[in-house]
Specification:
The chain has about 200 residues and is mainly beta. It contains one helix and 16 strands. The protein is about 5% helix and about 35% strand.
Length: about 200
């Protein structure tokens, strides 16, 4: 009996490019995404980490011997990409351009681009300049007392102010302080207020 010939692999594969983003300080081993392949079953995946390659090339040129740092990302045999280092938005790279290669059992390969963006997590609170002024008693309610100056917004924009004394004064969203009641010298001669500026980190 004549054996039925096995159908050879088609040697045709296509792989879709992957765009992804992760927050800075994401835990090592976090899944970023998975590349998808159409066609023959993939035997293995490889990931060219541009950070690792550039470090090797630079170290080889300068020191004449490679100094390999851990790759930023890993890929398993199912095409799942995970983080392999800790990422810092402020001091590290903010975008990684990688190349994934998929290989089937007969050695045919296909490639796809992977672009991973690192997103910032606000961590720094705003700082404000101290403010001192004087006003006349009896001035109209709503009179401008002054405007708070922001020395540093932190790592995101300031979008709100709050005032410790909300009975006698009020502050708007751009830091302008105005009177809320009639100020009487005989009742009180000095007000010590605290202003809070809020960005995405908080107050």
């Amino acid at each position: 009996k004549k054996e039925k010939e096995k159908k050879p692999l088609t040697s045709k594969m296509t792989m879709t490019n992957l765009l992804a983003s992760i927050d800075e300080d994401t835990a090592i081993g976090t899944k970023i995404g998975q590349v998808e392949v159409e066609g023959d079953k993939v035997k293995s995946f490889t990931l060219d980490d541009d950070k690792q390659l550039s470090e090797i090339n630079r170290a080889t040129t300068i020191n004449h011997s490679p100094s390999i740092k851990p790759p930023s990302f890993k890929i398993n045999n199912e095409g799942i990409i995970t983080t392999n280092i800790n990422f810092d938005y402020e001091s590290g790279k903010r975008e990684y351009k990688l190349m994934v290669t998929a290989i089937n059992s007969v050695g045919t390969s296909t490639q796809a681009n992977v672009i991973i963006t690192i997103k910032n997590i606000p961590e720094t609170l705003p700082t404000l300049e101290d403010f001192s002024t004087s006003i006349d008693e009896g001035i109209s309610i709503g009179t401008l007392v002054g405007e708070i100056k922001i020395l540093n917004t932190g790592d995101s924009e300031v979008f709100k102010f709050e005032l410790s004394d909300t009975t006698n004064f009020k502050i708007d969203d751009i830091g302008k302080v105005t009177t809320k009641t009639l100020i009487d010298y005989e009742k009180k001669t000095e007000y010590n207020l605290t202003v809070y500026a809020m960005n995405e980190t908080g107050f």
